[in-house]
Here is the input.
Amino acid sequence: MNTLIHLENIVREYQMGEEVVRALRGVTLSIEPNEYVAIMGPSGSGKSTLMNIIGCLDTPTSGQYFLEGEDVSDLDDNELAEIRNKKIGFVFQTFHLLPRYTAVRNVELPLIYAGVPADERYERAVAMLAKVGLGDRLFHKPNELSGGQRQRVAIARALINNPSLLLADEPTGNLDSRTGTEILALFDELWRQGNTIILVTHEPHVAQHANRIIHILDGQIQKEESKTSSIPV
Amino acid sequence: MMQRTLNILAEFGESIRIATAAIAANRVRSLLTTLGVVIGVTFVVLMGWFLDGLDSAWEHTISNLGYEAIYIHKFDWTGRTPWREARKRPPITIRQIRTAMTQLTLAERAYPRGNAWGQTVRSADNSIGGIAVIGTTSDNDWEVANSIEAGRFLAPIEDLTASYVAVLGYNVWQELFPNQNPLGQTIFYRGKKFRVIGILKKRGTLISDWGDNSVYIPFRVFQLLHSTNFSNYTLVVKAPSQALLPEVTEEARMVMRKVRNLAPWEPDNFSINSIDAFEQQVRTIRIAIWGIGIGMTGLSFLVGIIGIMNIMFVSVVERTREIGLRKAVGAKRRAILLQFLIEAALLSTAGAVIALLLSQGAIAGAKFLLFPGDLDFTASIIPPHLMGIALLVAVLVGILAGFAPALRAARLDPVEALRYE
Ligand SMILES: Nc1ncnc2c1ncn2[C@@H]1O[C@H](COP(=O)(O)OP(=O)(O)OP(=O)(O)O)[C@@H](O)[C@H]1O
Ligand SMILES: [Mg+2]
Here is the structure.
């Protein structure tokens, strides 16, 4: 099976006291390797919930999720951690860098939990930072970096383990438009190099970078748009 | 397997770095948190140090007095029979001692001894008071066998012929002959001249240092110098081995009862003293120290555990988003658990290190102020085994205190943790 992601009738409910909040109400979706997907929808429509399930940070209440052919809907905490470590790279709206760590140490983090020896970790982190254009900011701490630079560190961290999947939940949400554009250019470049990217946004011009746009409303897929190719190469 | 080892190694190294950074970032808070551990470890170390000193003092005492001997005397050394009552007992006379000596069959040796306390002896130039003059025979030589500094102990013939010779304890010859060789010199006691034939090494014991403030003279000479109603005579009986001591003691008791004409229903009117009696006392002191010590230590460690546990819970809450992020990039429960356990253990160990420094200071102070004299058998630096125990206990306390917070951290849901404000 070649499909990277296959979601089958995914439901995610939250129990809020008496009331049940249905964040996802039966999502069925397949994503192939090297797709560039944007998920759009209004606030509260379930975009982050869907991303968390795709990223194995969360598990569905019902439905099945196959990641590279493996059923991951019922794995336990530790098994999910291992999958996140090996197959998934996250980029968050608020960066989530560790404030006391230098850029290199932040990027090394996933490799620590993969058991990679220290000197190899360091070399790979340095190379990855150079790749995202931060070769001259290796030993800066997050508060010594601009917002765009912080997001580049986070992207380097997401890519360090050669994941099958790069997930970004509103990666430009905390950036000014010029810096946002730079980050999107970096995503485009990564996509061209063969990475599979899923990003969440509610800005249409951000979504235009993807070659497939999925619209979500009230926890369901409302419609899809496809482009044969994304922005001109 | 190999990969698993690598994983744990990497996580371990990371945990140590996180922990040191976290502690360094909150120095004052960390210090206050470890107060209980600091106090607890200080107690353990000082207690262990003192008991070690007590033990070696005791060993020294044993080697001076010996386990195989009993000292039959009117008074009881350790007060099992109160002095007030013992005073009413008839004196132990020389005749009784001589008779008893002929009837003892199991003893390796038995001999008389007389102690006169608070005596003054003189040399040509100096004098020393507060001395014990001990009249005894050559059979008493075993007691000082390892303590002869120069010369020799009393010879059998010197007792038989009542020779005026003396063997001087360390303080005595130091005082009387500060700049000369005491051997062959003359000392004066009760108006008589004695020739010095031997001098002893320093012998201070746990019980007292009177051994260093004593002068040995032949028993018959002692008898001549003291009035006929001198009642402070002792019969010393030595068993061939420690194992035979009970039988030898029992025989000596029977013989003494017979020579003192005691009817079967009458209680002993003499005391059989031995090192055992002191050992009981030393044991009681040990138990008392342990009792107090363990109580205090336990209490401090309880405070320490609660303090560290509390601060670790705070730390887990403060670092919720960090935990979420670590889990998001692949940290398993084990890794997070390890991280917080190590932080707690390191915190506690830092407390132990502070405690070791404090204890060392206290020991130096105690040695300077309390034991400047002869009776100090305590170590001047903390013995390594105590350091080991202190650090081990600290690590255990840390793990105990850190477990609940670490478990809470390990079980955090990554999505919730990342969203935590
Ligand atoms: N832990 C939770 N407990 C209860 N309800 C939740 C929880 N997380 C999300 N929800 C609810 O699920 C729905 C979807 O939330 P989600 O965060 O996926 O929205 P979103 O599309 O990402 O919104 P935004 O664009 O504002 O980020 C919302 O109604 C939200 O209130
Ligand atoms: Mg969202």
